[in-house]
Each structure stands twice: as structure tokens, then as C-alpha cells.
Amino acid sequence: MKDLEEYSGKYAPDIKYQDFSKDALARLLNAYSKEMALLSAFWYNAVKERCGEEQAFACEVKVWEDIGAPEINWTREALNIQGNDLNAFAKLIEMGGAFARDIYDSTFDFKSPNHVVFTITKCPSLAYLERHNEKERIAKLCQILEPASMRAYAAAVNPDIIITPLKLPPRDGWDEKGWCGLCCQWELKIEPNK
Amino acid sequence: MKELKAYTGDFDPNLRLEDLSKEVLVNLLREYARLGLLLEAQLNSLISQKFGVEAATDINLKARLVVEPIEMKTIKEILGIPGNDVVSMIKTMQWIPDGPLNGDIFQLHYDIKNNNHVIMTVTKCKSMEYYERHGDEKGMKNLCEVLEPPIFNAICQAINPDMKMRPLKLPPRKSKDDICCQWEIKIEPKT
Fold first, then answer.
1. Domains of chain B in sequence order
2. Which of B35, B66, B91 minimises the CB distance to A36?
3. Do B95 and A77 touch (CB under 8 A)?
4. Is some CB atom of chain A closer than 8 A to the CB atom of B190?
5. What is the Cα–Cα distance from B10 to A90, expressed in whole angstroms?
6. Which terminus of chain B faces fewer neighbouring Cβ atoms within 10 Å, N or C?
7. Considering chain B, what percentage of its residues have pLDDT values greater than 70?
8. pLDDT higher than threshold 90 for residue B189
């Protein structure tokens, strides 16, 4: 098996993913993950231009709700991630294609096996919208789309996971509250008797 | 360097992609590529249901004309593919998430006449075969005549603004043993 760092030589009709080094494959994975974010954003823009903002947002929410279960299941298969507890949820979100690892930063604070606080500390989408002062879009994305999508992803791992937003943008006054560096924060719980 | 064959055990906040074995990284690449295709298919289907096929085609085209060139430039850079001729373009196109390496959606054959002139023959195309199976000529026309030619040209021009891709043969085909479509790719400097 070859370990190509790059594809600089002749065109190889039979080349396979396996012919590349792990480092090159990791770079490709990050590129594929970013492509998903781009696809969603540019589809949203194109739908908005033709059908209006309301319809574009409705499609965006529906698609991200629908994609949660396949993404969780395919990531499980690819990495053989077992279980349906919060440990499995954290691993599946960490490795999923839609949560590009070199775009977003996050932490999972395990209070107990059945209680986790999930914090996103870097979100370029939010930073972009803040820079452009798109307050209405921030409110829709962070307060409607993200909770709907998070619930879909959590339900695909375990329907008994209860996910509650603790802090959601807009981030007006967050620094004064001591919430510097946070983009959003979520509490995940599984009731032990369920 | 670790060589994890699976992600069992506890959540590891410091896990790097490079800690996974090559086999697992390849599985994950196929999963990410499939997810991108699913996202696009879901959006297309949703818009078609709500606003009709024509609106979905128009929206799909607008979005992909922006995304595909970004994708080509990114992949060319991260895989260190040099040059801006036709062969550099087909080398880059091998790795796009909806390209020929993703499962068995497409099978392609390239006849390289020289670095600036290539004939690309698509011998298998699941998208076209779907429309063929359902006798959906309108869907096929939208895909093969409305969407693909401008998208292929945008893909070429992301590598070289003078590169053009022209259809030599487009569906419908006469028999299932026939090829799906055929394209000529050339560098044609503006005069």
C-alpha cells in the first residue's frame, strides 16, 4: 500500500483512497466536511433568491432534521461506535461529517455518565453573521434551526436524550456575564429510570 | 502514531483523525462523501415537491456553480496537484466528494490525447440510470442537458479559465450496453 502525501505525478486511473497517507486522507476529510457546510449555505442563498427567505429557512430546517439520523448511523458504521449513551453521542458528534473539526471547536463536560454540558467555542458561521450584523439570521439559525437539528441528532443516538439549550446567541452582553469565548451551550441528560 | 480500527471506549477530546487506521479513515471519507450527496438530494427533492422540478434545477445549478469550483481549488491545493492543464483537472476531479471514487455511482474512462486534450466517457451513471428506469425523460434532460454542461465547464474553469468541456454524446441512449455520455475537454485560449 502506498502512502502518497500528494498527487503530483502522472494521472493514475486506478488510484484509490488507500494509496494516500493518513495525513492526506485527513486533509481530504476536512475538505469534504467543509463542502457540506458550503453546500447548505449556497443552497439556502439560491432558494432565498428564488422563493424567499421564509421558504429557504423552512427547507434548511427540514433538511438538517432529516439528515441527523443517516449521519449518526453512517458515522457509527464507519467507526464501529457502539452504545446509545452520552459517551456515544459525544463521539458521534466529534467524528460526524457535518461538524467539521477544523472549522468548529467544542468541549464536552461530563458531569456524570448521564449528564453532559456541550459547549461550542468556535463557530465561524456565527462570527460571519455577527460581522455582517445579521441579527435576524442569527436568531433563526441559533434559536430555531440548531435546537431542531440538535434534537434530531440526539434522538438518532437515543430518543431518551433530553437536550436543553443553556446559552444561545445573539451574544449581546455575554462578556459582562462572564460568558466570553462561548458560542452556544447545551445540556444533555438521560434520565436513569428511562 | 495510533492505528485505531474502531472508536470504542471513552470519548477522547484529543483524538486526531491521524489516530485512526487508514482503513477507518477511508470508511469515514466514503461516509462524508455520501452525506454530501444526501444533503444535495434531500434539498433537490424538497424544492421539487414544493416549487417544481424547474425551480429545483435552477436552484441546484446556482448553488453548484459556486460550490464545485471552490471544491476543485481546495482539493487541488490539499493534494498538491500541480499544473493547470486538462490532465491536472481530471486528476483533481477524481477526488471530489461526488466524483468517481465515491462508491459505485459513476464509472469513467479517460482517453488522454495529450495534456490539453482528453475525451471523457461515462460508462456508468446511477443518476442517469434512475431517470432511465423511471422513464423520466424530463428529469434526464434536466440533469444531462441543463445541469451538467455548465457545471462541468465551471469545474474545468476553476483549474484553467481557457478550459472547455463539450458534450459529444448525451442521453437518452439506445441500449443499456451503450455508454452514458461522452465529453471532449480541451484548452482553448481566447483569441
1. 20-187 (3.30.1380)
2. B35
3. no
4. no
5. 9
6. C
7. 97
8. no
